[in-house]
Design brief:
binds S-adenosylmethionine; 9 helices; Rossmann fold; two-stranded antiparallel sheet; globular; alpha/beta
């Protein structure tokens, strides 16, 4: 690993090396949060069912089975890290889900074969984002949509844990593109922007459990911070938890909806 990311000058996070063993447990979402995302995404996708979906950068399959339940499928979970894919194949199975090796710039599916591509916190990891956007354009059929769920540089969420790791805000500013940059990339590939959605996701679940899961350190922001910074942050969290002083905050679930325009009919004479 240790290849430099041209967009952020931060080291790339290699999920075959880090996080894969803990990711599913550490980043598990309560059923209510998964439902929130599926219902929110559905408002921006065609109403017909079934929809063929690619979960691009599907990781351990946190959303992949839920996408099949919500939209019918088939759903393709495309993921470059073998260890993440193996975790998904073990614990996130569904009769209409298939996990495939691939990545944004090399999607192993035919041209114009899918209705929807979801990228959930994965596009900032793509080394060649222009090539990724062009490849996504290739597989989405005309009229099909892309949901780019990401943090955007100008709207870094104020997670419940943010204040305990003061440098994490600046790290995320370096990790993530702005909304305008994301739009420019996808529009250059041929997509039109349908909507920029600023969504708020309520805190669900139990704060003690959230602390225990955060301690598994499966957050890519933490890969760009020192062990000392992290140890100090977790010590502050332990103290605040003991005092009952951690504020349960909602977070952002922002995304941009893109559409591959319908092909204009060529006129013949
Ligand atoms: C933060 S995880 C998100 C996983 C999943 N979407 C979720 O929300 O749980 C980021 C994922 O992006 C994947 N990834 C890295 N480079 C990628 C690329 N070039 N194309 C697609 N996914 C990539 C990583 O291997 C990792 O599984």
């Amino acid at each position: 690993m240790a290849t430099s990311d041209p967009h952020t000058a931060l080291e790339r996070v290699d999920y075959d090396r880090v996080q894969h063993a803990a990711y599913a447990k550490a980043r598990a979402l309560p059923a209510a949060s998964i439902r929130h995302y599926m219902e929110t995404f559905a408002r921006h996708l065609p109403a017909r069912r079934p929809l063929t979906v690619v979960d691009l950068g599907s990781g351990t399959g946190r959303f992949t089975p839920a996408l099949a339940d919500a939209f019918g499928g088939p759903v393709w979970g495309v993921e470059p890290a073998a260890a993440m894919r193996q975790a998904a194949e073990a614990d996130a199975t569904h009769p209409r889900v298939t996990y495939l090796a691939g990545e944004a710039a090399a999607i192993p599916l035919p041209d114009a074969s899918v209705d929807v591509v979801l990228m959930f916190l994965s596009f900032h990891h793509v080394p060649d984002q222009a090539a990724g956007a062009a490849e996504i354009f290739r597989v989405v059929q005309p009229g099909g949509r892309v949901i780019l769920r990401s943090t955007f540089r100008e709207r870094i969420p104020d997670h419940w844990w943010r204040g305990f790791f003061p440098r994490s805000h600046a790290v995320e500013e370096a990790m993530f593109f702005s909304e305008a940059e994301a739009r420019a990339l996808f529009e250059a590939a041929g997509f039109s922007t349908v909507e920029v959605v600023h969504d708020e996701v309520p805190f669900e679940g139990d704060i003690e459990d959230a602390v225990a899961r955060l301690k598994l350190r499966a957050v890519s922001t933490f890969e760009h911070m020192t062990d000392q910074e992290l140890d100090e942050g977790f010590a502050r969290i332990d103290a605040a938890l003991a005092e009952g002083a951690i504020e349960e905050k909602s977070t952002y679930g922002d995304f941009i909806v893109f559409e591959r325009p319908m092909e204009t009919q060529k006129t013949t004479r």
